[in-house]
Design a protein that fits this description.
Shape: globular
Number of helices: 4
Oligomer: single chain
Order of helices and strands: EHEEEHEEEEHH
Structural class: alpha+beta
Distance between the termini: 16 Å
Number of strands: 8
Strand content: 25-35%
Helix content: 25-40%
Radius of gyration: 16 Å
Number of domains: 1
Amino acid sequence: MLDIGYALANRFPDPPQTDYRRADVRTLRHDLFCGDVHLADTRSDREVSTAWGWVPVLDFAWALCDIVEHLDRDPAGSRASRPQRAELDFTESSDRLLFERRFGWVDIDAEWLPTTEPPLSFPHSELRREARDFLHDLVADLIDLHEDLADNPALWTLQARFPRLP
């Protein structure tokens, strides 16, 4: 089972003058809500996580949802034998998360892990559902911290683009 989580860092607080209602997409994705993220396989008790404290957490959730959709572009879907690849790069470093889908399963590997460490592997449908749940839970948490964020049209568009799945 996949668990996606985050922790906001105190080291990089959002600027106190931030107008969350009017923050543009670039600001939301790259300048606010820094911390760390993890993807964990709860069955095998293994995870891929950052420990840098500066990862823009909302950008991570947004990019993860984009990547999951990108991995689903092959018309053969879960029957596709040709690997479909995507990567998530972290803007402040050269490290990347690598995603490879084949036959409905997605392997997730991190460049900063030892090469002897096998990738995490999840069904694409589970990754899609959990990524969207993570996004919506994160947005709800951020709105609890900053009520004005609930009035930001960029977040409305984001949540409409990636609705929760049953």
